[in-house]
Amino acid sequence: MQEYGLFIGGEWTDSSTGETFDDMNPATLENLAVLQVAGIDDVNRAVEAAKAGFELWSKTPPPKRAEVLFRAARIMQRQKEELASLMTQEMGKVLAETRGDVQEAIDITYYAAGEGRRMFGETTTSELRDKFCMTVLRPLGIVGLIAPWNFPIAIPAWKIMPALAAGNSIVFKPASDTPILAIKLVEILMEAGLPPGVINLVTGPGGTVGKAIVRHPDIRAISFTGSLETGKWIMGECAKAMKRVSLELGGKNPVIVMDDADLDLALDGVLWGAFGTTGQRCTATSRLILHEKVREEFTARLLAKTRTLRVGDGLLPETDVGPVINKAQLEKIERYVRIGQEEGATLLIGGKLIDPESSGLSGYFFEPTVFTDVGPDMRIAQEEIFGPVLSIITVSSFEEAIEVANNTQFGLSSAIYTENMGNAFRAVEQLETGITYVNAPTIGAEVHLPFGGVKGTGNGFREAGTDAIREFSEVKAVYIDYSGKLQKAQIDTD
Ligand code: UN1
Predict the structure, then answer these.
(1) Looking at the structure, do residues 171 and 71 belong to the same domain, yes or no?
(2) How many domains does the chain have?
(3) Does the active-site annotation cover 248?
(4) What is the mean pLDDT of the segment spanning 422-436?
């Protein structure tokens, strides 16, 4: 059995607790590796190492930092197949998707590396003579990065690469369901020449290790992707310490299919959005808002296609839908199916765990599930399930579709299928989400555009895109007075 340590100050070390945990393949329930449960002492050690790392790294010229990232991207590219296969074993999603996950990490790494020669500030005028004004970006210091399991290398890379390009040092806690890919990413960065102490990795539960990171007074910012509940707690803690926090939380992403939509296109998009990654994306399509005029036809075609989806081990080429990440998640999905039935929604297909006896599948598998007759206020239309469960809500107009779409506490992604250009643009204006797709599914963001949501999905920050560096930098305004005398802004008016 492969054993992995914590990574502190450039060395792999054992934790102070002496405890370990297992990392399991959700498709086979085999153990893949043993990992360390870090303690508070280890988080403290990681922060001390990150202080030394920050001293060095923040003073390294950004184009030199970028060289490390360019090398890391090339190493990832070389290892893409190996990383993807490992990720399928660790996280479960099918190989085509884990290749995409690695590709997304490569993309953001190149993107952040490119920023090494940009990181533009502004120059502007002064109201006074002989005075020069500009802004520069400064690193934040030590940042605490807490990542989820559904994108085991892409989301860590979204956080790590811009944070590094901007000159910060890092204490990184990966999700306990997918630590190996995080460790591989750290190994790649070290192979690429990142100095010791700049990135430190601690593994273990959010309740202890995550908490210690959030509460550490010398960590200046937290970037977290995960549940709304945890995000709220983190935000409260960070408020007390006046610490910057950027949050990417849940979604309840709607796809609107209008009566004038290209239904073939919409069908492919709904299936991919709802059941890709086994529905375990923040951006997954969990509500289908369907125009009543196409309800019957579209629902029938959707069911026929859903029936053909093959659930199984993501390593097998014939698999469309892999396992669910763990037992707790499987039970949560089961619970929501019961809730949907109790609320009076009609279960059209799926709704059950896949029985290991009859299927020969021993892991955490759940049938692709579709509910119809879902009321917009039902819990299955409001709460994030994070599994292969789609709720159909029928509407009779564009206005009603928008109203239903916006009737949620979340606001990450949304999509509309329509051939009416006016309605497409109206939807872009009116859908309360950070991302809107026209004639494309709710999943599939690209790294050079900002990623994030409104309302309960986040707190105004965006990851990736042109905001990537800003998430991990402070803006400093600089005034250079070369008049040789005291000049008073707002007072010396001539
Ligand atoms: C997530 O589910 O948290 O847009 C991230 C997408 C992917 C990223 C999803 N590129 O679906």
Answers:
(1) yes
(2) 2
(3) yes
(4) 98
